[in-house]
């Protein structure tokens, strides 16, 4: 006899006046199960008593469910503790500079502007272009073939003709391919870490630029 049949028999007993109860904690579930089981034993047919094998099976099922609930609770507590620990460890990044996915470059006159390209796999042809606020390409880099990994680069603030460009925001774009097949590549930029926070997706870094980055996105720490 299953738990459902026990619940049905108990609900049908007007002498006991039992009713269905909504699901609660693991302890509440155990108490309800035991109450239903005792009720069934008290109201079983003397000519057709509850089979010992069925009783043992039901007790084993309840024990398994209780064990799973306790395991889930322990795992949830472990995850919460791990998240808090990650936040504390990540706090050491505040004030540091990290290399994270991003396409925005802030050009300052007379200064080199470092950035990088992340190659999840090698490519025969990798080209980088830098565009201004209007979307016009001002500087191009033909990097040729690149292997898998991170390639660090630097821009001196000059356009393709060698003229110095004005300070401001620019954008870096990456195009990679092997033959006619496009290869995914990601532009990486440097940013200062202003603060860290714990979110639904894990630890998030609040960058000085106002953008956010996941802790797992950090490729390099300076």
Descriptive labels:
12 strands; 3 helices; 2 domains; five-stranded antiparallel beta sheet; 222 residues; 36% strand; Immunoglobulin-like; elongated; seven-stranded antiparallel beta sheet; disordered N terminus; alpha+beta; 30% helix
Could you describe the 3D structure shown?
- There is one protein chain.
- This protein is 30% helix and 36% strand.
- Strands 1, 3, 6, 9, 10, 11 and 12 form a 7-stranded antiparallel beta sheet that branches.
- It has helices at 3-12, 26-42, 52-90, and strands at 97-101, 104-107, 113-119, 123-131, 137-146, 149-155, 168-178, 181-183, 186-199, 202-207, 212-214, 220-221.
- The termini are far apart.
- α1 (3-12) packs across α2 (26-42) and α2 packs antiparallel against α3 (52-90).
- With 222 residues, the chain is of the alpha+beta class.
Summarize, please.
The chain is an alpha+beta fold and 222 residues long. 30% of the residues lie in helices and 36% in strands.
């Amino acid at each position: 006899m299953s738990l459902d049949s026990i619940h049905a028999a108990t609900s049908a007993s007007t002498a006991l006046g039992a009713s269905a109860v909504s699901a609660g904690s693991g302890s509440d579930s155990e108490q309800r199960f035991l109450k239903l089981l005792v009720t069934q034993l008290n109201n079983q047919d003397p000519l057709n008593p509850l089979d010992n094998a069925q009783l043992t099976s039901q007790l084993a099922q309840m024990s398994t469910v209780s064990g799973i609930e306790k395991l889930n609770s322990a795992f949830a507590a472990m995850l919460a503790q791990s998240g808090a620990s990650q936040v504390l460890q990540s706090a050491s990044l505040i004030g540091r500079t990290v290399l994270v996915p991003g396409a925005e470059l802030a050009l300052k006159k007379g200064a080199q502007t470092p950035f990088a390209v992340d190659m999840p796999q090698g490519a025969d042809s990798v080209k980088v272009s830098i565009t201004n606020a209007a979307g016009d390409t001002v500087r191009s880099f033909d990097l040729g073939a690149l292997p898998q990994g991170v390639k660090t680069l630097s821009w001196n603030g000059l356009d393709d003709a060698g003229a110095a460009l004005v300070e401001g925001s620019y954008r870096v774009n990456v195009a990679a391919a092997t033959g006619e097949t496009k290869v995914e590549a990601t532009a990486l930029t440097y940013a200062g870490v202003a603060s860290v926070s714990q979110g639904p997706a894990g630890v998030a870094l609040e960058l000085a630029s106002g953008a956010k980055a996941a802790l797992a996105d950090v490729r390099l720490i300076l």
